[in-house]
Amino acid sequence: MASKINDSSRPLTSVSRLSSQDARSAEAKTRNRPIAWKDGFESSGARPGSKLPQLPAPPPVLSLPPPATTTPVPPEAPTEPPVSDDSDPMKHIEYLASDALQGRDSPSAGLDAASAYVQAHAEKYGLVGPNSNNPENPFQQKFNVYSWLGADKAGEAAGAAHAGHAEHKQFGHETFQEGFYLDEKMPKDTLKLLNQQYEQTMKAAGQSAVPARSGKQRGVEELKQVATATGQAVNTMAMLPGTGPHKDEVIVVMAHLDHVGVDRKGNAYNGADDNASGSAVLMAAVPELAEAAKNGKLDRSVLFVWTGAEEKGLVGSQYFVDHPIPGVELKNIAGVINTDMVGRWDDQRLSVVDTNTKGQPNYFRDVVDQANQQLADPFDRINRDINVYRDRQDGASFGRKGEDVLFLFEGLSNPEGGGDLIPEYHRQDDDIEKIIEDNGGNKPRRVKDLLLNVINIAANRTTEPQPK
């Protein structure tokens, strides 16, 4: 892990941004060269033979409501550099949650198209592909997805990823709950976790687990004999190099890009809230943070990760942790922020998890409160009512390794905390129209503003040396 975060912060520089209070539509200037990170990360220039999947045509443009308040800036005396509507998460939700992407299952052509869309956006603002282990496309980390033989043959025969995906009553997934990866580099603790999940799955399916050949635990090759490969999924990532003395430390900002695909009749689960909203918030934060880095206002580096196969059981995030890319080992990570389902309910409340595996607050508790107060219109309620979800979201893969994790979530049905998930959770009516009905699209815009402040504080905090 990176050096310990001290509670005292040095004076912060503001990040110029398109906010929910101040929207601008002028186009950002095109960058001719990507930012290069001299510590071994390749530039994002075109590479021979590197082809992106063909993106489906964007859906017809909806009449999205504008941000709640618009304050035009006189052209003769601009206070901030203009940015495009790339900074509005609603633009990205509209594409990611369109029928053309067919529910973004892992794996699927829809998820590949979403990955290509995210990558093109990151390259536009000069972010670099950090995965030198994949020279063909360093913006991607690919992995094979498996499921247990016999666990869901009905769903496989129908061409759907999981027959029971129509309605989930509990948020998130346990690690490897409905899918997993398998390779020889799998760490021992992950292999142990997978063995336990195999036994639980077989018991739930009313089948007997194949015993280990020797000892108490099955090896990778033994598990492959009782599993079937369902295809290749992808984590999409982009690095924004820091410019300060702590540039080798990294703040990881993540959201799962996948959803649950289609039903047996081919009808899509578009997942506008889950999790086009979180993925779009990350995308919308890119232009402002790139401008901050260009102006020398970003000390630590920021790694954006849009994970795949989260809906299978946090597979993409676990694979990332188990297969660190060069320069982003656990020792380099100085904090992790996960954004999942941030589009619904009213725009004055948010729920967060800012505790470790023992339930103790981590350094993000003070950061979130400070970041909220920096907003022109702070959230009325930052509820800490979802600790039960701490181990059922992508941040858990990092939390088990001792990293400080912040989880941002839209909240539950009770505005003061507690209650139920949105009724459309994992249903086919989780569409962008529901976000518009709830808050006019202002909730994801405000979450983006808060996220920018959180990243700015975390990336520019003072540190104290770790004890040896």
UniProtKB/TrEMBL annotation:
InterPro entries from the UniProt entry: M28_fam, Peptidase_M28
Peptidase M28 domain mapped to chain residues: 235-437
Pfam families: Peptidase_M28
Biased segments, Pro residues type: 55-81
Disordered, as annotated region: 1-90
Biased composition (Polar residues): 1-23
Descriptive protein name: Peptidase M28 domain-containing protein
Organism: Corallococcus caeni
